[in-house]
TrEMBL record, chain A:
Protein species of origin: Ureibacillus terrenus
A Pfam cross-reference name: SBP_bac_8
Keyword Nucleus: no
PANTHER family found in the cross-reference section: SPERMIDINE/PUTRESCINE-BINDING PERIPLASMIC PROTEIN, SPERMIDINE_PUTRESCINE-BINDING PERIPLASMIC PROTEIN
Binding site for spermidine: Y92
Cell compartment(s), UniProt: Periplasm
Entry keyword set: Periplasm, Signal, Transport
Top-level division of the source organism's lineage: Bacteria
Gene Ontology cellular-component annotations: periplasmic space
Protein name: Spermidine/putrescine ABC transporter substrate-binding protein
Organism phylogeny: Bacteria, Bacillati, Bacillota, Bacilli, Bacillales
SUPFAM superfamilies: Periplasmic binding protein-like II
UniProt GO molecular function: polyamine binding
GO terms (BP aspect): polyamine transport
UniProtKB/TrEMBL annotation, chain B:
InterPro entries the record matches: MetI-like (IPR000515), MetI-like_sf (IPR035906)
Gene3D superfamilies the UniProt entry points to: MetI-like
Membrane topology reported for the UniProt record: Multi-pass membrane protein
Principal location: membrane
Alphabetical list of CDD domains matching this protein: TM_PBP2 (cd06261)
Protein name: ABC transporter permease
Transmembrane segments: 12-33, 53-76, 88-105, 141-158, 238-260
Keywords linked to the UniProt accession: Cell membrane, Membrane, Transmembrane, Transmembrane helix, Transport
GO biological process, one term: transmembrane transport
Annotated organism of origin: Ureibacillus terrenus
Compartments (UniProt record): Cell membrane
Residue stretches making up the ABC transmembrane type-1 domain: 57-259
A Pfam family assignment: BPD_transp_1
Length: 358, 268
């Protein structure tokens, strides 16, 4: 009995000690003072030279941390205990963060460089008037394909090319309900934000007809697999496509003419921020055309900064695959927040489709 | 006084069971009865009995049974012959060592091995056979799952065969039983407890496998585990996710009861 009491006391002491250490460690998610800012961004999503340049110009030190999914980022910011001054979520997450009151409004007067952003990318439904977010990069959902592995010369100008019987067991899909359901809706000329059971049912039936062509429905593994020519065709985001094409030069990317998804990763200032002034300075710095051009060339995604585009290598800036022409751009749609009920329905239809693959 | 001495050391275990076994299950049941708005409802259970989810539960169950069956088919003879070798514990260790490697790491290795340009296809193409689609098939899913569970199945079976008194086998043979009868009437009944624990540690995790379904089967096999992950992370419908989990827990209970030790009448 005595040893048991001793043991309990020892455990309590260890717990108290651990708690104390944790308390001490907590602020390491950023120092949170006037001369540092903490940035929370996707991995490999900024030119590190720009961070150094920023410190040199403003004297503000940068602490840079990375995340690998919107959900992980959201959870970490929601839990608190961090002092991130800037985060870079995608548009649907921004909408959620606004709803949950996790963001500070952005003071546009402190970001004069906002004038360089193409108005096409401003004032979108997920953040009207850009009250809480400033565009960083954007992209599309499209088709990556390897022309050398096709037995029939398909161009993928239309989503319906995917249903071609010559593609039997040659197509990868990304494991995400909205992308795949949206693709099917688009192929029928419908909106990828459709809230109509009949339409979704039709889209699912159409997808089930696609199942003989499906090789797998996978996640980020799609990138190395396409690089290794495991399949001829994949539906994915333009950003992943750029990564694949950098490794495998045979690959090509197309955004079908029926329309597709337009996505954004934007700067936001979470409520955990300690250096709001510094955060504004950083956003303004990144929007400077010269810096934005350098960053876009490093990262390889599409920049919304039209002044930066003029400074960039014309071969990149005129690449219609990543900067689609006006007529296609007009058919791109941003995901609207469908609400949890419809999100659930999209997922259930997607599940039904996945179960039909054999 | 004697009572207190006996109960005192149990307290940590009781606390453990309350906090980490009973409380989570109670929470899962509680959440399973909430809808998206947090209202009390049985709607989730009704939805579970729709064709989509029932079919999924059935496939999960079916694949888990297949995986367990093949794992047993390979493990029992392996364990049996292991006990007959000279350095049996050394050999056993060689079989157990791969289970020290992280599951995901092994899975990724299989992606490379099974790939169109992987070693297996390179090997068969030597014989002039066209590269075959191995990854993202039922075969690859079963193969990798069985591979992963084999060490867990071998361990308990090995122990029970090892404990088997060899003179019993000799006696059966001396009394004229054929090798098959010896196995059926003596070896198998005496090692059945090892087989049962082996089935438990294989069948239950096999029901909720989820990373392998995506990485190796390319989501062509959908298990209850995949659906739970989707409901929590993507659809953010904790209620529905919990409902599926409740059924998973129920199936697990059922399989535990099915494989539980039976006290033989009159001989307790």
């Amino acid at each position: 009995m005595k040893s048991l009491i001793n043991l309990s006391i020892a455990i309590l002491l260890v717990c108290a000690g651990l708690y104390f250490i944790a308390e001490k460690l907590e602020p390491s998610g950023g120092k949170g003072s006037k001369d540092t800012i903490t940035i929370y961004n996707w991995g490999d999503y900024i030119d590190p030279k720009l961070l150094k340049k920023f410190t040199k110009e403003t004297g503000i030190k940068v602490i840079y941390e990375t995340f690998d999914s919107n959900e992980a980022m959201l959870t970490k910011i929601q839990q608190g205990g961090t002092t991130y001054d800037i985060a870079v979520p995608s548009e649907y997450t921004i909408e959620m963060m606004i709803e949950k009151d996790l963001l500070y409004p952005i003071d546009h007067s402190k970001i004069p460089n906002l004038k360089y952003i193409d108005p096409y990318y401003l004032d979108l439904p997920f953040d009207p008037g850009n009250k809480y977010s400033i565009p960083y990069f954007w992209g599309t959902v499209g088709i990556v394909f390897n022309p050398n592995l096709l037995s029939k010369p398909l161009t993928f100008e239309s989503w319906n090319d995917l249903w071609d019987p010559s593609l039997k067991n040659k197509v990868f899909l990304v494991d995400s309900a909205r992308e795949v359901m949206g693709m099917s809706l688009n192929s029928m000329g419908e909106s990828l934000n459709a809230k109509d059971d009949k339409l979704l049912q039709k889209a699912t039936e159409k997808l089930i007809k696609l199942s003989p062509n499906i090789k797998g429905v996978i996640g980020d593994e799609i990138i190395p697999m396409m690089e290794n020519n495991e399949a001829a065709v994949a539906i994915t985001w333009s950003g992943s496509a750029a990564d694949m094409m950098a490794e495998n030069e045979e690959l090509d990317y197309a955004v079908p003419k029926e329309g597709s998804n337009l996505w954004f990763d934007n700067f936001v200032i979470p409520k955990t921020a300690k250096n709001i002034e510094g955060a504004h300075k950083f956003i303004n710095f990144m929007l400077d055309p010269e810096n934005a051009a350098q960053n876009a060339e490093y990262v390889g995604y599409s920049t919304p900064n039209k002044a930066a585009l003029k400074l960039m290598d014309p071969e990149i800036a005129n690449d219609e695959r990543f900067y689609p022409p006006e007529e296609i751009k007009n058919r791109l749609e941003v995901y609207e927040n469908l609400g949890l009920e419809w999100l659930g329905k999209y997922n259930e239809y997607f599940l039904e489709f996945k179960m039909s693959i054999k | 006084m004697r009572d207190r001495v006996a109960k005192g050391p149990l307290i940590p275990y009781l606390l453990w069971i309350v906090f980490f076994v009973i409380a989570p299950i109670a929470l899962i049941i509680y959440y399973s009865m909430l809808d998206l708005q947090g209202n009390f409802t049985l709607e989730n259970y009704k939805r579970f009995f729709s064709p989509v989810y029932l079919k999924m539960a059935f496939t999960s169950f079916f694949y888990a049974i297949l995986i367990t069956f093949f794992t047993l088919l390979i493990s029992y003879p392996t364990a049996y012959f292991l006990t007959k070798t000279k350095h049996k514990h050394l050999w056993l260790m060689f079989i157990i060592i791969p289970s020290w490697i992280n599951l995901l790491l092994k899975t990724y290795a299989f992606i490379g091995i099974f790939g169109l340009y992987g070693p297996i296809n390179a090997f068969i193409s030597v014989f002039g056979i066209e590269p075959k689609q191995i990854l993202f098939t039922d075969f690859s899913f079963l193969f990798v799952s069985v591979y992963i569970f084999i060490p867990f199945m071998i361990m308990p079976i090995f122990n029970s065969i090892d404990k088997l008194n060899p003179s019993l086998v000799d006696a059966a043979r001396d009394l004229g039983a054929s090798p098959f009868t010896t196995f059926r009437r003596v070896i198998w009944p005496l090692t059945i407890e090892g087989v049962k624990s082996g089935i438990q540690v294989t069948f239950i995790p096999a029901l909720s496998l989820f990373m392998i379904t995506r990485l190796i089967a390319g989501n062509q096999v959908i298990t209850l585990g995949t659906a739970i992950e989707q409901q929590f992370l993507v659809a953010q419908n904790w209620g529905m996710g919990s409902t599926i989990a409740v059924f998973l827990v129920l199936i697990m209970f059922a399989s535990m009861i099915f494989t539980a030790k039976r006290t033989k009448g009159g001989r307790v």
